[in-house]
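Predict the holo structure. Ligand: 2-acetamido-2-deoxy-beta-D-glucopyranose.
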Amino acid sequence: MEFPSKLVLLFLIAILSSTQSQSATSPPAPVPFSPAPAPAPTSPYVNLTDLLSVAGPFHEFLGYLQSTKVIDTFQNQANNTHQGITLFVPKDSAFRALNKPPLPSLSNVSADQLKQIMLFHALPRFYSLADFDKLSQKNPVSTFAGSGQFALNFTYTNGLIRIDSGWSQTKLSSAVHSTNPVAIYQVDKVLLPEAVFGADIPPMPAPAPAPEKAASQAPDADSPSADATSGKGGKGSGDSTSSAGSAGLGLLSKLVVACGGVMMLLL
Ligand SMILES: *[C@@H]1O[C@H](CO)[C@@H](O)[C@H](O)[C@H]1NC(C)=O
Ligand SMILES: *[C@@H]1O[C@H](CO)[C@@H](O)[C@H](O)[C@H]1NC(C)=O
Ligand SMILES: *[C@@H]1O[C@H](CO)[C@@H](O)[C@H](O)[C@H]1NC(C)=O
Ligand SMILES: *[C@@H]1O[C@H](CO)[C@@H](O)[C@H](O)[C@H]1NC(C)=O
């Protein structure tokens, strides 16, 4: 009979095209469906002194933390609490900018005040960059130095995080470290609290366009960049999903063609 032989021909073509499509997409050997790799257990201990001496340049800030012994307070918070710590670290160039009026000088403050200024640069909790969206709705935010005139205001706009202490308006310019329980963010200015320098803030000159010679050496991202160590969901997992996806597609196309053949046989 003519009809069935046509069907057999069609079926053969279907089989052929199925093997062709299989070789065309060439799925790799079946990908075992393993659960997403567990995040590598990182050592919870972060040596803040170590981190601040290799990153930066943050030598001025680290020097003040050490001379005031505030480094021990911060390290203790990082070591021994579940809340963790968030540090705002000014670059060395930010300290050089301080001594020019109307900005006050740190050489003129008492030892106690210097300690408070250092404590003012930290929050007694770990905040990832994304957390600042919510945090900015809770202004004013208490710092390690306290509340009231020791509080900071944050604004969050499309990932750009600005800090306002009254005396200092600056932004987070990069993430040095952001893995629970320790977050360290670079800021462009030293944070000056009203509690030390008074609420009577002199008008600040508009930022001149070019006084950033020192800063221009280091390319500063305008918005904070995520720290490499905090990356979640590695490249590996993405790759395995996509290859699993194409393997699935190959199987599907084969099934569709085979079903087509079977249906034609049944006709
Ligand atoms: C932290 O790092 C500093 C600088 O490398 C080192 O002197 C200090 O001993 C370290 N502290 C601890 C507790 O490991
Ligand atoms: C923090 O932990 C490290 C490692 O366990 C320890 O050597 C260091 O003395 C601790 N520092 C503080 C201030 O708790
Ligand atoms: C240092 O303190 C004195 C007394 O409080 C004050 O008169 C002076 O303006 C201060 N100088 C600077 C540079 O802040
Ligand atoms: C921070 O925000 C609070 C409430 O919005 C406001 O009263 C305070 O003046 C602000 N402080 C600074 C330093 O901008």
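The pocket of 2-acetamido-2-deoxy-beta-D-glucopyranose (ligand 4) is lined by residues 139-140, 153, 164-166 (CB under 6 Å). The chain has ten helices and seven strands.
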